[in-house]
Amino acid sequence: MGGASLAGATLGGSERPAPVQTAPRVDALVFDTFGTVVDWRTSIIREGELIGRTHALDVDWATFADDWRAGYGPAMNRVRSGELPWTKLDVLHRMILDRLVEDLSIVALSEEEIESFNRVWHRLIPWPDAVPALYRLKARYVIAPLSNGNVSLLTNMAKHAGLPWDCILSAELAGRYKPHPEVYLKAADLLSLPPERVMMVAAHRGDLEAAQALGFKTALVHRPLEFGPNRNVDTTDDPRFDLNARDFGVLADRLGA
């Protein structure tokens, strides 16, 4: 099976052929979800704009989405450090949302509306290439999310977005948040596979590095628009990982699906 070409090298004035990444043999693919499979930023902006029109709110919803997402890491760190006991991501998202609503002095929303908005994370839209390619991959491999999202969030997201997962794998099942090793090892154990027979797919290099250190195969899929059109995102291929792809369709090609 062919692979993504890496940059060629020059030696003694002549250019050597670029090495080719060969797809490793694996039985299952597990996917980071937020930003890799689904477009969280556009989804939040759209729902925010609907709320804004309903209540005549003067809010920059792009900034709101970015700030909500920016609170994600610090909130999980409170759990990782032991400051908070194990807490589902839904609850952490609500804590961040409550702070944003307070900071912006948004008083027009009822508790029901705030809770519904918090569940926007259950209704995120997939990147255009995601669903068709996942169906291709599903025909050959076991596929599942491996996300910090809780099980109910990922289940509802799959139903809303049409994501054809074979099962739902979540950090919640390990009671830890990525990149804790137990999250990845628990996923492999639940699949009854050794780590080297599982490929972690993500748009985030840190996620792949953590999985790779445990023996997982890795695939970097570039998502240059995850943080919007004005954000500089590194989309260079990374030779540390087994495969590099510009989208899920190319990933399916690389894996012979």
Overall description:
The protein is of the alpha/beta class. It folds into two domains: 25-38 and 124-254, HAD superfamily/HAD-like (Rossmann fold, 3-Layer(aba) Sandwich), CATH 3.40.50.1000; 40-122, Putative phosphatase, domain 2 (DNA polymerase, domain 1, Orthogonal Bundle). It contains ten helices and ten strands. The chain has helices at 40-55, 61-70, 72-80, 89-103, 111-118, 130-138, 151-161, 181-190, 205-212, 248-254; strands spanning 10-11, 14-15, 28-31, 38-39, 125-126, 142-147, 169-170, 198-202, 217-221, 243-245. Strands 7-6-3-8-9-10 form a six-stranded parallel beta sheet, with helices on both faces. A two-stranded antiparallel ribbon has the order 1-2. A hairpin with a 2-residue loop joins strand 1 (10-11) and strand 2 (14-15). It is globular, with a radius of gyration of 19 Å.
How is the secondary structure organized here?
Blueprint: E1 10-11, E2 14-15, E3 28-31, E4 38-39, H1 40-55, H2 61-70, H3 72-80, H4 89-103, H5 111-118, E5 125-126, H6 130-138, E6 142-147, H7 151-161, E7 169-170, H8 181-190, E8 198-202, H9 205-212, E9 217-221, E10 243-245, H10 248-254
Parallel strand pairs: 3-6, 3-8, 6-7, 8-9, 9-10
Antiparallel strand pairs: 1-2, 4-5
